[in-house]
Amino acid sequence: MTEDGDGRLADMVATLARGLVDTPDEVRVEREREGDTTVLSLYVAQEDLGQVIGRGGRIARSLRLVTRQAAHAGGGRVNLEIVD
Amino acid sequence: MSPDSTAGAAALQGVLDAVAVAFGVRDPQITVAQDDEGGLVGSITGTGSDQIIGRGGEVIDALQYLAAQVVSRAEGGGRRRVNVDADGYRARREAALMDLANRAAAEALEFGEEIELDAMTPHDRRIVHMALKERTDVVTRSEGEEPRRRIIVEPAD
Asked: Which of B47, B67, B87 is the last residue in one of the domains?
């Protein structure tokens, strides 16, 4: 996937995360490449971790599914990590 | 719409815009509207929007779940129903389920016995129940536990 594609993926994750948390200003998404895989690291305020993980991890699972499919649509691979 | 529901619609619009961009949808058309029952309905169409559906609708369902959380927070904790569609998938799925319901009903009547359908999500089961609700010659019920819960169609007594 291209640099631009990675940026668009990171923007989507940030938009979703900002909508889920109490402190949107503390949402940050960092990206790096590991071979052919893009690694996105999502940072949120400590108190907001539960909001991006969800009961039983359902929100995190949904975020990963949508992000993975978006990368796939652009011919790439992505790993979304929620940093605690 | 009240100020709160405007915030929800704006939040949904923002999410769908970002999703369309991330999926690389060309010439995206994004709509957000309120349905008859006060729920929010968001839709993305355009070339490549079919990528947002996923196998068995798992991606569009995940996006819908996330969108509902975002809308709820934007509206200060409301529990409004949020539907999200891509590339007209929901309408196609509904038509296919109604067709399945009618075929099951015909089969139940032809053989005079119960027809057990495959397991489905609560949303999909509701469409099948609704499709046959008005009929007096067949009845439907659900059996089993999630996620294996499924519909039985049988002739009415």
From this structure: B87
- Same domain? B96 vs B47: no
**Burial call A34-50: b when 16+ CB within 10 Å, e when fewer:** eeeebbbbbbbeeebbe
For the domain that residue B122 is a member of, what is the CATH number?
A: 3.30.1370.50
Closest residue to A16, CB basis, from B48, B59, B70:
B70
CB contacts < 8 A (A, B): 68
Interface test with A, best of B59, B71, B84 (most A CBs within 10 A): B59
With CB atoms and an 8 Å threshold, state whether A65 touches B59: yes
Residue-range definition of the domain harbouring residue B61? 3-87
Domains in chain B, number: 2
Q: Tell me if B22 and A63 make a contact (CB, 8 A cut-off).
A: no
The rounded average pLDDT for each run of 10 residues, N- to C-terminus, in chain B (157 residues) is: 76 98 97 93 97 94 97 90 96 96 98 96 93 97 95 95
Cβ–Cβ contact B37 with A under 8 A: no
What is the predicted ipTM? 0.95
Pair (B20, B57) in one structural domain: yes
Would the CA dihedral through A13, A16, A20, A22 be positive or negative?
positive
Question: 3-state DSSP call for residue B19?
Answer: helix
CB distance from B21 to chain A under 8 Å? yes
Tokens 């590339």 — which residue?
B87
